[in-house]
Write a structure and sequence with these properties.
alpha+beta, Ubiquitin-like (UB roll), Alpha-Beta Plaits, 2 domains, two-stranded antiparallel sheet, 20% helix
């Protein structure tokens, strides 16, 4: 098959033509089909670690992350099958369990997707220990109690700005976002570009002074690497 040939497959019963290189999530968005997702952001390398975007593919044993999976010819994909929807809801419910009581952003993506899937509260207990707030940086406030480990901040710092200040340490329940070798953000090599703040879906990294919950007066296009 030529690289420019559209890929014909079925998405929720619709005959769809995908462009070469498109993921299931991108194809769905282009056709107005909403699939929950948190770790995906256009322009960043797909990670597939939040698992909120899992879909069911006929003939496959396990669910697939739509942000990483590309369609193949005649594939049958279901985004809202009972099995896929149950998994999506469970992921969101587990994340909601540890979310702060009050949103840290005016548009909190975790709360938005949870609301769309009808999740108003979680059956699961909140973790006993929550990370302390790091307010050592003059421009960026670190609220890791809102962190969902999507790694969008890490990829934005590394891939967009090339700073590589943010990393991911430990494993399991102890895993966390770190700056340099575990420094506070204020004492790290962070240059304050704000790329991580723009990438964060929950406000775990947010502007100081509560700007994340403010309504913007205007939007201005910019080529500045520190604000655009």
């Amino acid at each position: 098959m030529a690289e420019s040939t559209p890929i014909q497959f079925s998405l929720d019963g619709q005959a769809i033509a995908a462009l070469p290189g498109e993921t299931l999530l991108q194809v769905a968005a282009r056709h107005g089909i909403a699939i929950p997702h948190l770790c995906h952001q256009e322009g960043l390398t797909p990670a597939g670690n939040c698992r909120a975007c899992v879909v069911e593919i006929d003939g496959e044993r396990v669910l697939a992350a739509a942000c990483c999976r590309q369609p193949t010819a005649d594939m049958q994909v279901r985004t809202t099958s009972p099995r896929a929807r149950q998994a999506q809801r469970l992921v969101l419910e587990l994340l909601v369990a540890d979310a702060p009581a009050e949103p840290l952003l005016r548009v909190d993506e975790l709360r938005r997707w949870s609301t769309e899937l009808g999740i108003t509260e979680s059956r699961f207990p909140r973790a006993d220990h929550q990370p302390a707030t790091d307010a050592t940086h003059p421009a960026i406030r670190v609220n890791l109690d809102a962190c969902i480990h999507c790694t969008r901040c890490l990829r934005a710092c590394r891939e967009v700005q090339g700073n590589d200040v943010i990393g991911f340490a430990m494993r399991g329940g102890a895993s966390r976002i770190v700056f340099d070798q575990g420094a506070t953000l204020g004492s790290s090599s962070c240059v304050g570009c704000g790329e991580c703040v723009q990438a964060c879906p929950t406000g775990a990294l947010a502007s100081q002074g509560g700007l994340g919950t403010a309504v913007a007066d205007d939007h201005v296009d910019s080529l500045c690497p520190y604000c655009g």
